[in-house]
Amino acid sequence: MGRGLTSGSGKEARAAAVAALTGLRPRLAAAGLGLGIAHVDEPRLGPAGPAEASAAATMTPGRRREFLAGREAARRALRLVGANCGEIPREGRLPVFSPGRAASISHSAGTAVAVARVPGGDTPLGCDLELRPLPGGAARLVLGPDEEGLLEPAAGTECGPWSLTGLFSAKEAAWKALYLAVGEAVTASMGTLRDLRAEPCGDALRIGPRTGPAYAMRVRVRVLTVGAGVFSYASGWADLRGRPTAVSTARRS
């Protein structure tokens, strides 16, 4: 999910975010992940095939540029892990990737990012970019009563408080990762972000469904500062016992 910025501050925020995101590439590469970045003002941004062109034609100009930037970010992420990719059609609002390819896409304030894994890998895929802070009143839409303590320093630990924007972003990344791994039938209980529970896991968060068939599944999510915002990505399965025995062949993010 992403919220826009005014044009002046948006360009400055985008430049800072792109610089910070670019600096994260080696870190993700060490985990077998490619990080693709694109932005809506790129001069050569365009559809990679008829399916993308058809989808883009139905959109407003701003949404069209955002859509195309997301597709380009996904292609760049896939190239970084040695998996070239042509056009990326959609089913509903979700991107559909060809066999052997998978990526997670997010965009905010004119910047698009995507995370892809090395072909044959099983690292959960999910990312989220947020370049504007959430208002405090949004906490009730993101956190359950048992998670409100995450916004304050944990007694007796070195883990400082998590921002509401960071927790929102982390849950978005976890939702995408779980959906891609096991599909809609298993994750149907995840209707809102409050249906996911987050808890500290070292310098990361462990996040999984509160109920339902995927209850035992937890992903580890890292939340990193990028410019004035945050970037979150799934960095692994937090509980091996809950890890899916076969990763879904769906190519959605």
UniProtKB/TrEMBL annotation:
Protein name: Enterobactin synthetase
Superkingdom of origin organism: Bacteria
Record lineage: Bacteria, Bacillati, Actinomycetota, Actinomycetes, Kitasatosporales
Residue ranges constituting the 4'-phosphopantetheinyl transferase N-terminal domain according to the UniProt record: 52-116
InterPro entries per record: 4-PPantetheinyl_Trfase_dom_sf (IPR037143), 4PPT_N (IPR041354), Enbac_synth_compD-like (IPR003542)
